[in-house]
Write a structure and sequence with these properties.
Blueprint: E1 7-13, E2 46-50, E3 65-67, E4 87-91, E5 95-99, E6 105-109, E7 115-119, E8 150-157, E9 163-166, H1 173-180, E10 198-203, E11 209-214, H2 230-233, E12 241-247, H3 256-270, E13 279-284, H4 291-304, E14 314-317, H5 326-338, E15 367-370, E16 376-379, H6 381-388, H7 395-408, H8 410-416, E17 424-427, E18 430-433
Parallel strand pairs: 1-3, 2-4, 9-11, 9-12, 12-13, 13-14, 16-17
Antiparallel strand pairs: 1-8, 2-7, 5-6, 5-8, 10-11, 15-16, 17-18
C-alpha cells in the first residue's frame, strides 16, 4: 500500500468561550456588597502551521477530528476564567485548505512556519459584574460563552517543485530523475511503476539549483479520472516549467508526436492555465537505433503545426541511460526558470473573502418557519447565538432574552404571520408559548 496521501477531509471545532459567573461580594465590614462574578475565558483557536518536515497528509488519514479546548468559567472576586490555548495542527508545505461546504479556498500554505486560523474560538461570557447599573446594582445575570467556530475542511496537497516531469508511462521519467538528482524512485519495465510523486533537487554545473517532481504517468482520459487520473495532475499546478518527456524510440509502438499531443490535451482539459507554463520537450532514449529518424519526423510535424509567429518549444535529445545531453538540458531548464514568474494558482472568485466574525447588516436577524406539528420555528445566526449565550438558569437572564427578542421584532413578525396566544414557538430544542 502506498504511504502517500495528498487529499484529506477533516472536521475542526474551536473551543467555546467560558461561561460568565453570577456572584456577590460577601466581605466582613463591607455592607451591601455588589456583583462580583467574572467573565469566562476565550476558547482556543484551531491553527494550521506549515511544517517543512512533513511530506504528505498521512497524519490526517486516521485523525480527522480536531477540537480545541474551551475557556474556563468566570470566577468570584471579578476574576476572569483562563483562556484556552490554541490547538496547533501541523500541515506540509503546499497544502491548500478549502471549506468543504462552499468549495472556497481559505488559504494556500506554502511557506515554512506560515500560520492560519481555520476556526476561531468563542469569546467568554460576561459575568454579572458587567451588568450592574444604577437601576439594578445587583444583577443576577451572566452570559454563557460564545460557541467556537465549527467547520468541515478539504485539504489538498500540491507539492512544491519548480519543474514537473510529465509524459506517458514508461517513457523514462523516473530514470531521468534518478540520474539528475539523488532521488531513488522505483524503476521498472512496466506501466505505472511510479504511483506517487517523487521529488529531487538538481544542481547544475554552473551552480544553479531547482526542485524536480516526477509525476505518475499520464494516459488519455487522465483528466476524467482514467488511470491514476486527476489524483496526481494537481501536483503539476505549482510547477513553473514542464519537462515533457517523450520516448523517441517509439518502443511501445506509439507515435511520439501523437503522444505529445495527447498529454498536452490532458493538461489542457484538467486546467487550461497549465498551458501557460513554458514547456521543454525532452526527446528521451536517443541511444536506441530508431530514435534519430523518429526525432527528425517529430520536428517536421511539430513545425508544420505551428504558425510562423509562434515560438517552437525547445527540444533536447537525451539518453537517461548513457547520460547523453543531460547537462545541456539542465542548463536550459535553469535559464528558463530564471525568467519564468510564479503562476497564481487561484483567482479572487475561488478565494473566500477575509473572514468577518460579526453580523452582516443586510442579513436578517431571524427567520420564521412552520414545523409539521404547527409550531413556529425561529432560526438565524444572530438569534441562535443570543439563545446559546443566555443562561436560562437565571430568571433575570431569561427576561433579558425575551426583551432582546422583542427588540429584534420577533413578536411583531410572529403576530404578522398569524401567531395566536398559546401557540408553541421553538428555537432549536427550546420551546415556549407565544403570549399576545
Amino acid at each position: 500500500m502506498s504511504m502517500f496521501l495528498d487529499t484529506a477531509k477533516i472536521k475542526v471545532k474551536a473551543g467555546n468561550g467560558g461561561d460568565g459567573m453570577v456572584a456577590f461580594r460577601r466581605e466582613k465590614y463591607v455592607p451591601n456588597g455588589g456583583p462580583w462574578g467574572g467573565d469566562g475565558g476565550r476558547g482556543g483557536n484551531v491553527v494550521f502551521v506549515v511544517d517543512e518536515g512533513l511530506r504528505t497528509l498521512m497524519d490526517f488519514r486516521y485523525n480527522r477530528h480536531f477540537k480545541a479546548q474551551s475557556g474556563e468559567k468566570g470566577m468570584t472576586k471579578g476574576m476572569h476564567g483562563r483562556g484556552a490555548e490554541d490547538l496547533i495542527v501541523h500541515v506540509p508545505q503546499g497544502t491548500t485548505v478549502r471549506d468543504a461546504e462552499t468549495g472556497k479556498v481559505l488559504t494556500d500554505l506554502i511557506e515554512n512556519g506560515q500560520e492560519f486560523i481555520v476556526a476561531r474560538g468563542g469569546r467568554g461570557g460576561r459575568g454579572n459584574i458587567r451588568f450592574a447599573t444604577p437601576k439594578n446594582p445587583a444583577p443576577e445575570i451572566s452570559e454563557n460563552g460564545e460557541p467556537g467556530q465549527e467547520r468541515e475542511l478539504q485539504l489538498e496537497l500540491k507539492i512544491l517543485a519548480d519543474v514537473g516531469l510529465v509524459g506517458f508511462p514508461s517513457v523514462g521519467k523516473s530514470t531521468l530523475l534518478s540520474v539528475i538528482t539523488s532521488a531513488k524512485p522505483k524503476i521498472g519495465a512496466y506501466h505505472f511503476t511510479t504511483i506517487v510523486p517523487n521529488l529531487g533537487m538538481v544542481r547544475t554545473q554552473s551552480g544553479e539549483s531547482f526542485a524536480v517532481a516526477d509525476l505518475p504517468g499520464l494516459i488519455e482520459g487522465a483528466s476524467q479520472g482514467v488511470g491514476l487520473g486527476t489524483q496526481f495532475l494537481r501536483h503539476i499546478e505549482r510547477t513553473r516549467v514542464i519537462l515533457h518527456v517523450i520516448d523517441m524510440s517509439a518502443s511501445e509502438g506509439r507515435d511520439p508526436y501523437e503522444d505529445y499531443l495527447a498529454i498536452n490535451k490532458e493538461l489542457e482539459s484538467y486546467n487550461l492555465r497549465l498551458m501557460e507554463r513554458p514547456q521543454i520537450i525532452v526527446a528521451n532514449k536517443m541511444d536506441m537505433p530508431e530514435s534519430a529518424e523518429n526525432l527528425k519526423i517529430f520536428k517536421e510535424k511539430l513545425a508544420a503545426n505551428y504558425d510562423e509567429f509562434d515560438e517552437l518549444p525547445q527540444i533536447f535529445p537525451i539518453s537517461s541511460l548513457t547520460k547523453q545531453g543531460l547537462s545541456t538540458l539542465l542548463d536550459a531548464t535553469a535559464e528558463l526558470l530564471d525568467k519564468t514568474p510564479e503562476f497564481l494558482l487561484y483567482d479572487e472568485s475561488e478565494m473566500e473573502e477575509e473572514a468577518y466574525y460579526g453580523f452582516d447588516e443586510d442579513t436578517p436577524a431571524f427567520e420564521i418557519s412552520r414545523a409539521d406539528d404547527a409550531a413556529w420555528v425561529l432560526s438565524g445566526d444572530k438569534l441562535e447565538k443570543l439563545f446559546t449565550m443566555t443562561n436560562f438558569d437565571r430568571e433575570e437572564a431569561v427576561m433579558k432574552f425575551a426583551r432582546q427578542l422583542r427588540g429584534m421584532g420577533v413578536d411583531e413578525a410572529l403576530r404578522a404571520r398569524g401567531a395566536k396566544d398559546g401557540d408553541l414557538v421553538r428555537i432549536g430544542k427550546f420551546e415556549f408559548e407565544f403570549v399576545d
